[in-house]
Amino acid sequence: MFANFRDGFQLRKFAFGGLVKISCVVLLSAGAALASPAAGHDIPTTRLVTCGEHSCLRIEGHRDSVGTMVAINGQPMAVDGGESWRVTLPMHMVRQIAGDGARRLEVTLRHPSASRESRNYARLPIGLLGDTTELEVIRVTAS
């Protein structure tokens, strides 16, 4: 009787191990599909770049086709590139189209059919359009 129990237990243990392996493969496959590089292209990105003696803001994103129009905060933009596009704006222009203290820019993609558009937000670098305060003295103490 003990031998029958042991043999049945071994069989179930083997089946359970196979089920765990299959489950792991399925979960890893699903994770790889969700983390595909194509999913990262939907959100536009920003970064500071130098353009001559000044700083500029580069905005990069992805669009379905070259004919798709790009607008930043409602302002149509001439962009470089094809489906992966980019635009470099001088800081004085960024200040004009974004309000003081803005933390993001609205990026609108108007599709060629003009019947649909998609909107997303590009986050600005921290403190880019924030207020500046000139300090006369700063005191640092250790406790």
Give the tags.
flat, 143 residues, alpha+beta
Q: Explain this structure to me?
A:
This protein is α+β, with helices and mostly antiparallel strands and 143 residues long. A hairpin with a 2-residue loop joins strand 3 and strand 4. Helix content is 31%, strand content 32%. Mean pLDDT is 78; it is low at 24-28 and 30-40. The protein has a four-stranded antiparallel β-sheet with strand order 1-2-6-5. It has a four-stranded antiparallel β-sheet with strand order 4-3-7-8, with no helix packed on it. It folds into two domains: 2-35; 38-123, Sandwich (Immunoglobulin-like).
Structure at a glance:
This protein is an alpha+beta fold and 143 residues long.
Distance between the termini: 73 Å
Rounded to an integer in angstroms, the radius of gyration calculated over CA atoms is 27 Å
| Approximate shape | flat
Largest sheet: 4 strands, antiparallel
Structural class determined from secondary elements? alpha+beta
Uncertain residue segments: 24-28, 30-40
Top-tier CATH class of the largest domain? Mainly Beta
Instruction: Write down the overall mean pLDDT.
Output: 78
CATH architecture of the largest domain: Sandwich
CATH topology of the largest domain: Immunoglobulin-like
Number of DSSP strand runs: 8
**SSE ordering:** HHEEEEEEHEE
Strand order of the largest sheet: 1-2-6-5
